[in-house]
Specification:
The structure is a single chain. With 305 residues, the chain is an alpha/beta fold. The protein has one domain: Rossmann fold (3-Layer(aba) Sandwich), CATH 3.40.50. Helices cover 38% and strands 21% of the residues. The strands form 2 sheets. A 9-stranded mixed beta sheet has the order 5-4-6-7-1-8-9-10-11. Helix 3 packs across helix 4. The longest helix is centred in the middle third of the chain and has 22 residues. The N and C termini lie far apart (64 Å).
Length: 305
């Protein structure tokens, strides 16, 4: 009886299966690959418009919905479903599908060349359709639709329990900031009713995402548009060249909810005139002492040399 406490609860194989399910491998595109990100992390991708923020989300979506292997072909994906909530209608579905088709075609071509199977044909459209079934897209035109979409995700994930969803993407979390802020100053007809404004909206947003993560652990990626002035304040604060504090326009409850923040912007030098455009990325939370440069090509984000 004294040795009961050292009896195993599970085998090593069972432990690995449990850990990999609780902490799935997420294939992060550049420039997100610098920091180890996992479920329950809230990542804010900030930058002026345009700065490839939506492209980063699209690249992450392609990495997720592609299978790792299929019929011996290495596609390099994770075969997970993705939830994409579009708040400013910037996602180009044609661009996303084109990038996905390019990845599938290049993987098949590489497999044929390396295995001397040039005469073999693959069902690329069948695989493309299978991948797109893992991509769930919701477009919202105001904060009420956004909150309704978040609340509806609980039932959506419960009804489709066979799908493994590990990534939630929100494109332009501050899209309705000024509209919601204007509501805050309007008088309420019923004094007992909670004021509908910027603060209450984001209190509900954070609350709903927290509830969602309790039952469905996911990585949350949210883009945020900043102005050129804000961009300069960001860079100055991180580099230490200025004592001016950065004035965040998002409510404090959202700021404290974010666990990671990265700033992306197009390079200001002469290389921006080249095709493709070169972008610059720096981590603000956690603050890292190095930065990345990348370009956007037909198949997605590539390293800049």
């Amino acid at each position: 009886m004294a040795k009961e406490w050292i009896k195993r609860d599970e085998s090593a194989k069972q432990m690995l299966q449990r850990v990999l399910k609780e902490r799935p491998l997420l294939l992060l595109p550049q420039p997100l690959h610098r920091v180890p990100l996992g479920t329950h992390n809230i990542v804010e991708i900030a930058g002026p418009s345009p700065s490839a923020k939506t492209e980063i989300l699209a690249q992450m979506a392609v990495n997720s919905i592609l299978p790792k292997t299929r019929n011996g072909v290495q596609y390099g994906g994770s075969e997970h479903s993705v939830l994409f909530i579009d708040l400013d209608c910037r996602l180009d579905i044609f661009r996303l599908s084109h990038s996905l088709k390019q990845r599938i075609s290049e993987a098949n071509k590489w497999h044929k060349t390396t295995n001397n199977q040039m005469g073999v044909e693959y069902d690329e459209m069948g695989l493309f359709g299978e991948c797109m079934k893992r991509f769930s897209y919701t477009r919202c035109y105001d904060s009420f639709e956004f909150l309704a979409a978040l609340k509806g995700l609980h039932n959506k994930l419960a009804d489709d329990s066979k799908k493994t969803v590990y990534v939630l993407m929100i494109d332009n979390i501050g899209a309705f900031h000024w509209i919601d802020r204007s509501f805050s100053s309007l008088p309420q007809g019923n004094p007992n009713r909670k004021n509908v404004g910027l603060q209450s909206v984001f209190e509900t947003v954070v609350k709903e995402i927290k509830k969602l993560l309790l039952l469905h652990p996911m990585l949350v990626l949210a883009t945020k548009t900043v102005t050129s002035q804000v961009k300069s304040s960001y860079s100055a604060r991180v580099s230490g060249f200025s004592n001016n504090a950065y004035r965040e326009y998002m409510p404090l409850i959202w700021q404290s909810f974010v666990t990671h923040r990265i700033l992306v912007r197009p390079l200001d030098d002469k290389r921006k005139l080249q095709d493709p455009v070169c972008y610059f990325a720096e981590w603000l939370l956690p603050a890292l002492n190095f930065s990345d440069e990348f370009v956007v090509g037909d198949t997605g984000i590539l390293t800049s040399f």
